[in-house]
Amino acid sequence: MIRFLIPFVAVVLFLLEPEFALFSPISWGDQTLILVPRFVILYLIFISIYYSKKRACLYGLIFGLLYDVFYIDIIGLYSFLYPLVCFVAGSTVKFIHQHLSVTTILSVVLVALMEAFLYYFFSFIQFTTIPVSDFLSNRLLPTIIANLLFLIMLGWAFKYLINARLLQRARDNS
Amino acid sequence: MPHFTNKKLILLLVGTIFLVALISFSLRDRQNASVPEQFIKDTVGFAQFLVAKPANYITGIFNDINSLLNTYEENKRLKMRLEDFAVLQAEVNTLQSENESLKELVDKKDSLKDFDPLKATVIARNPDQWEEKIILNRGSSHGVQLNMAVMTANGLIGKISLVTPFTSEVELLYSNNPNYRVSAMVQGENSDVFGLIEGYDAERNELILKRIDSSFKVKEGEQVVTSGLGGIYPKGILIGEVTEVTTDDYGLTKMAYVKPAANFSMLEDVIIAKRTSVSVNGSDGTGTNADLTNGTESETTDTIEGEE
């Protein structure tokens, strides 16, 4: 059962992302804050760190491709970025302590880096013209805070789910 | 430092070239979806629709609670406006009947104003909001075509930018696309003033109405509606309200900031407007720069289809 639960959760998060995006943009005072939900990639980073780097990269490729085709219409952007982020996250396992708080911070940092890369890509192809300072204050910061809140609420659940799967696999092998 | 063998290096290089080629290939033609793309879009769209239903229901409950809390004040405000409304309604009725009889008199059948409304539900919004895009649950099998106007009860929100059999994408008015233009007019006291909505001001979060003839007077608070002259949108859909009038960058024409009437953040149900009179691929169209006066073969057939 748990075997299928891991990809199933990824699918649910993928479908929930645009629903949460409907709340954005939020106007706060005279500022317009844009929150970008990045649930799928956060979950995939957790899989990459606690479960399997290879599996995370594969899921990253699949969901990245779906994301590209369904929302962006530029094929190759997210289907490259998602596996790359998963790969980088999986590669850090050797160097860092795998505590939940450390993983949470690492995930958010990686998402922030991805967001910055996307900003440069989209300003390169002139889809956006906002200056860097606006990007940092109105987009990046709210996005980081929102995703951090999401991970604080659900990070332990991801870890619990992945651990359950690992236990099950160990039992099957023995 | 990871050890790169020759083989790995070549693989990396080929991969990079493939990626760049793929990105530039898909950037070139974004108005049409290939068959596998359409299949993925429809499948994901269906799953998304199933999720959107309960999600909309839940947000609906929250909205209901919110409006319940404001009931008293809203009621007071509405009662005040009700008296004005009755007067306005009577006036509209007389004008409408007069308009109809006059139209009959001059034997004018189709108007730029007429459109067939098609209701659609928003199933998703592009989660990374670099492009302002929403996805609807109606597609070409329901009669949706490229470039149709999309609006809410409050006003215009955008146009259809891509159609698959069961879903369609809407490019919202807040777009950085330089080819995105809406021919609009300001409803002045004495006469209508024409202009083009071109782009938006990211800082003010308002649309920019450009190319207004400087001899005309535009005042703050006047309403901006679509003019129907662009060839695609029906006439008279509310866009917004003028908030500030200045001169253009070159000082030759005026430009005005327009605050959109529609609320863009919580979109749920929208209306797709299919114009009943002939539509052409015009300035607020695909931005193909096609020769419209001498019209190529394909375009002429398009127009004939539109007439039927």
UniProtKB/TrEMBL annotation, chain A:
Location within or outside the cell: Cell membrane
Q: Which GO terms describe its cellular component?
A: plasma membrane
Q: Please provide the Gene Ontology terms (biological process) for this protein.
A: regulation of cell shape
Q: Which residues cross the membrane?
A: 33-51, 56-74, 104-128, 140-162
Chief location bin:
membrane
Has UniProt tagged this entry with the keyword Transmembrane helix?
A: yes
- Tell me what topology the record assigns in the membrane: Multi-pass membrane protein
Q: Per the similarity annotation, which family is this? A: Belongs to the MreD family.
Q: What is this protein called?
A: Rod shape-determining protein MreD
Automatic annotation (TrEMBL), chain B:
Q: Does the keyword Acetylation apply?
A: no
Keyword Protein biosynthesis part of the UniProt annotation: no
The annotated region (Disordered) lies at 282-308
Q: Biased-composition ranges for Acidic residues?
A: 299-308
Here the segments flagged for biased composition (Polar residues) are 282-298
The UniProt keywords, alphabetically, are:
Cell shape
Q: Which Pfam families does its entry note?
A: MreC
Q: Which InterPro entries does this chain map to? A: Cell/Rod_1, Cell/Rod_MreC_2, MreC, MreC_beta-barrel_core
GO cellular component entries: plasma membrane
The organism's place on the tree of life at top rank? Bacteria
Question: Where does the Rod shape-determining protein MreC beta-barrel core domain start and stop, copy by copy?
Answer: 122-273
Name a single GO biological process: regulation of cell shape
Q: Which family does it belong to?
A: Belongs to the MreC family.
Q: What does this protein do?
A: Involved in formation and maintenance of cell shape.
**Protein name from the UniProt record:** Cell shape-determining protein MreC
Species per Swiss-Prot/TrEMBL record: Ureibacillus chungkukjangi
